[in-house]
Amino acid sequence: MLSTALLLTTLATAPASATASPLEAPVQKEKGADAIVVPLVSYNSDLGFTYGGVAGAYLYSPGYVPYRHAIAIQAMFTSRGQQNHYLRYDGPRLIGPMRLELRLEYRRELLSPFYGAGNVSAQDFRGNENQERFNYKKGSPGAWMRLRGRPLGESHPLQTYVGYAWRYTEVSPFEFSVLNELKPVGIEGGPTGQVSAGVMWDTRDNESDPVRGGVEELSVRVSGTATGSRYQYGGITLSEKRFWQLGSRVVLAQRLTLDALFGEVPFFEWVNTGGVSVSEGIGGMSSVRGIERNRFAGNVKAFSNTELRVRAFDFQLFGAPVYTGGVAFVDVGRVWHPGVTDGPWWMLHPGVGAGLRVARRAAVVRFDWAMSPETLRHRVYINFGHMF
């Protein structure tokens, strides 16, 4: 029943993030409008069962691809006490050839993980991630906007973007938690306004399910008084994604990410990366699978993801091709943080695993099982879209 609901959801939504978002219509039209309302059902070991709903509406006009305007709304809850609600707008050619994206959102976590800073943090952790000692309560309403374009033409691989994000983070530490003991910068919470800019060189043959090419990205972000932030800090992100077609049904995919923060960085930013597709970690379904979400955090993060994707079977569903396949993967990551012991340089945190994929057009459902060779603990992820 769960897998059926997931497949039906992806038939109408695009897998651009960890949660479903219907802002890419699967069929291009010249004029008119579409509306989509679908249930949101998924599961992963970090958040538990996810349930809720997502809806989207699209307005089409001649000369606008894939649509002229789109709006989406989501209400999402998880069995571990997380909420993620948003209202999003997308105008692919709103300002000449420029693409405008806007998002209002509210996030809440009754158990938001915090194990301390550095590559060898929380040595007393024994695998119970629901302990108050390794969590805190967090609420964070916010908004962001981004303007993207191709300054050298629609078919040129160069893309640039600028954006602004604002968030107010409410922090409530538990009495005997690691957070309450360490009291790092940011325990007071407050606003973080952030200006970002980036450049991408994108040669992928397909953005949602590539088999050839790659994308290189460099992004910077700055927060300070002038941007509406309580904290003064900055960051830089370097990312490389490459895809090699080894045969008619086999693809080797590789991602490398390096993220560095500097200045007065609040602790709740230690786990975040910049760029168009943000990640959390080290640990979790967007960085190193098999390791608890945000298990290792610090000002500098580096991780690698290697996947061997095999396309096994193809069939038709509602007039469009669907394929099923498998994947084997190896993830590895590390963090560095000033003022703490990070262990020897070669101390990396790996995760290994395998999974299944079901895809129809741009919609991809992934089922992953992963294990940490360090602890032998394993985790399960059922979600939308490829990891990268």
UniProtKB/TrEMBL annotation:
<feature type="domain" description="Bacterial surface antigen (D15)">
    <location>
        <begin position="118"/>
        <end position="372"/>
    </location>
</feature>
<dbReference type="GO" id="GO:0019867">
    <property type="term" value="C:outer membrane"/>
</dbReference>
<dbReference type="InterPro" id="IPR000184">
    <property type="entry name" value="Bac_surfAg_D15"/>
</dbReference>
<dbReference type="Pfam" id="PF01103">
    <property type="entry name" value="Omp85"/>
</dbReference>
<keyword id="KW-0472">Membrane</keyword>
<keyword id="KW-0732">Signal</keyword>
<protein>
    <recommendedName>
        <fullName>Bacterial surface antigen (D15) domain-containing protein</fullName>
    </recommendedName>
</protein>
<feature type="signal peptide">
    <location>
        <begin position="1"/>
        <end position="20"/>
    </location>
</feature>
